[in-house]
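Technical annex B. To support the medicinal chemistry partners, we prepared a structural model of the target in complex with glycine, based solely on the information shown next.
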Amino acid sequence: MKVLVVGSGGREHSLCWAIAKSPKCKKLFCAPGNAGIAQVAECVDIGAEDVAGIVTFATEKKIDFVVVGPEAPLVAGLVDRLEKAGILAFGPNARAAVLEGSKGFMKDLCAKYDIPTGAYDRFDEPDAAKDYIHRHGAPIVVKADGLAAGKGVILCRNDNEAFAAIDHVMIERAFGDAGDEVVIEDFLEGEEASFFALVDGKRAVPLVSAQDHKAAYDGDEGPNTGGMGAYTPAPVITKAMTKTIMDTIITPTIEAMAAEDRPYKGVLYVGLMITDKGPQVLEYNVRFGDPECQPLMMRIKSDFLEALVACAKGQLNKVKLKWHDDVALIVVMATNGYPGFYKKGSEIKGLDKANAVDDVVVFHAGTTADGNKILADGGRVLGVTGRGATVAEAQKRTYKAVDKIKWPEGFCRRDIGWRAINR
Ligand code: GLY
């Protein structure tokens, strides 16, 4: 089978790494990929959002199966275009990807089908949004309706922060058209976790749970990032909790999307708050989490390409996934300055030594090659991922590998997994 993975981050490196292990994979391409992905796939210089370019490439190369990593091309209709060209693709079509593409759609769906989520309202006019904040008071959450590269959710501790968030999104238009509308919702108390399931339009196969660390610095301090580390499984998601999540959230969501004539296919990643009243949906994502995907791929024992193909064909009834029972944990290494301004082009050394640590893989998130040198080419640059019998063991092994990487221009958190270890 000829496979094309779309994307260039750590998520896509780990997907390529897992897919390349499948005996069914005869040739693997990645568009556009990165220096790490180039070690397992042939990288082609086509941007992940270049829908027309990807469809042309896939057609010309007679690609059998396309796996789409990031949300933007899904929301833009890449899967629709591939299917029209007769190419099997993993991921939702544009009508279903609206689950991540519009926060307002997602909240209305939950309300209509009784899927547990925080109380909310939607506004396309800033004064009305501020009036709602006056009446409800902080803490409160302001969300840009559309895609905002993970930056569109603003947690507001007091009313002034909430008014400023409305100005930022709707008047300063920090996220462009994504801020034409906002959702304002209750601030939920509890422990955050992520849950992933493969969905084939009608049925779901649960994957595993994970927790990530979004804040830039130790102790979960500092500005929010795309994620500075993660581990799977999440101890808060017990077997009983998994059943509750499947019964009250995943299955009703699949049924709701089918009833709305938007059958959902692909991975469904639900951001949850585990509250005193049970799990509540914070958000849906229509793709794997990044960095959560990397430890997830380290734990999967089954042929993951087979599972993705079955999912895309609507045949998840044929899939029974096997997992390593242990824990996998990722530490993200980022360029100094991230998530603010940072410089590209610094050299990273010691990657071979880090990769040589038992049960560790260094996934590349933003790198480029210059001859034999590996250079940083983004904010989040590497994801050092290790397995162990416990979170503490996985953490120790992962930091042992991190310490072999020589990159003065980069930093990482030193406490990934602390919440699970302190439980
Ligand atoms: N790690 C958060 C995300 O992928 O959205």
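Notes passed to the chemistry partners:
The first strand starts at residue 2 and ends at 7.
Residues 116 and 280 are 5 Å apart (CA to CA).
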